[in-house]
Amino acid sequence: MPQSNHYTGPAGTAPDRGVQAGAPATGVLLVNLGTPEAPTPRALRTYLAQFLSDPRVIDYPRWLWWPILKVILAIRPRRSAHAYARIWTAAGSPLRVLSEALAQALATELDGRAQVALAMRYGAPSVQAQIDRLQAAGVRRLLVIPLYPQYSATSTGSVIDAVADALKRLRWPPELRLVSDYHDEPAHIEALASSIERWWAEHGRGEKLLLSFHGIPERYVRLGDPYLDQCQATAHRLRTRLGLDPGQLLLSFQSRVGREPWLQPYTDATVRQLAAEGVRRLDVACPGFAVDCLETLEEIAMQNRDFFVAAGGKELRYIPALNDSPEQVASLAALVRRHAQGWPDSGA
Q: Could you give the CA distance from residue 94 to residue 148 in angstroms, rounded to a whole number?
């Protein structure tokens, strides 16, 4: 990878001392959810143990949750490993490969005005490790961008926790700024709309467009999480930009687990209902995911496609995430420039 772009390199590599010498003192840390190291039960057990032990994700009291977690870790890794194996590529986990490509493209777009690093909230490379690398490379001003367009305590809130834990270990932590969300940023909405329009131009347009967001328990929203409002705002702005009426663009929530109610309508129930109502060709996009991952490639493009066809539909077409598209790179670069205003060498 070109050193002049000031990208820290593939996950797990050592800091490049050659980059440090003339590197800018501003760093941008992209943070995504994470991925297991391999599509195996053992790797999934390690990954799920870290993910499901986060009190931001599961807020039950420890005494209640830990016995349940032990049962989950005895059963779920094998099933999850099978799902990951369906999407795993020769290069590795799609989420990791695509996130690295996005980080490299952002570094190129910023053209040396900031050092760009990628961390995973769960798994490797950790937030702690990447902040340490940026610190060693001379970064004194750090902008953190969680790759979650909509804020939730379960996602962005957890990244904030990890960043705080990393910084409090440093004798001289860098100046910190953090992007809480970008769900209604004009450049982000335009990137989503352009991506969908380009896909329609190539593949034709389905009868309806379903926007499927990752779900969270309804209880979390009652406790003050703004996630539902921000998902609805993204859907509204995207519907307006695409010129669709409410009956043409629908909203649903996927990936629920456990017995308590999650945000509704549920995606799996929605695709079945649409098929039963006579919809034969359904397009699905997932604006809550910056890059494609298990939840989009396996849950939507495979599982929910099968649900739709089994219920009488003809074709469910998944519209890929923005990934490292020029539109997403440009929208993230605009975020960096705006949030880095006032910092020397940021180019804002």
A: 17
* Measured distance CA(264)–CA(88) in Å, rounded: 30
Q: Within 13 Å of residue 221, how many CA atoms lie on the same side as its CB?
A: 13
CB neighbourhood size of 37 (10 A): 16
**DSSP label at 148?**
-
What is the pLDDT at residue 346? 57
Neighbours of 172 (CB within 10 A): 6
Residue type (1 letter), 262: W
15 vs 301: CA distance, rounded Å:
37
C-alpha span between 15 and 228 (Å, rounded): 39
- What pLDDT is recorded for position 5? 67
pLDDT < 70: residue spans in the chain: 1-5, 8-23, 345-348
**Nearest-5° Cα angle at 140, 136 to 143:** 105
- pTM exceeds 0.85: yes
Look at residue 24 in the predicted model and tell me its pLDDT.
75
Instruction: State the CB neighbour count (10 A cutoff) for residue 252.
Output: 24
Residue 142, strand partner residues = 27, 176
| CA torsion through residues 336, 341, 345, 348, sign | positive
Residue corresponding to tokens 């066809």: 309
| CA triple 39-322-256, angle to 5 deg | 55
Output the average pLDDT for the chain: 94
Compute the C-alpha angle 319/36/92, nearest 5°: 60
Find where tokens 């909230």 sit.
121
In the numeric block, the tokens 């003339």 are attached to: 22
pLDDT at 23: 64
Q: Which amino acid belongs to residue 234?
A: T
The beta strands (E) that lie in the chain are given as 26-34, 115-122, 141-146, 175-178, 208-214, 249-254, 281-285, 315-318
Query: Please, are residues 282 and 144 in contact by the beta-carbon 8 Å criterion?
Result: no
- Residue 13 CA: distances (Å) to CA of 60, 98, 114, 166, 186: 36, 17, 19, 19, 35
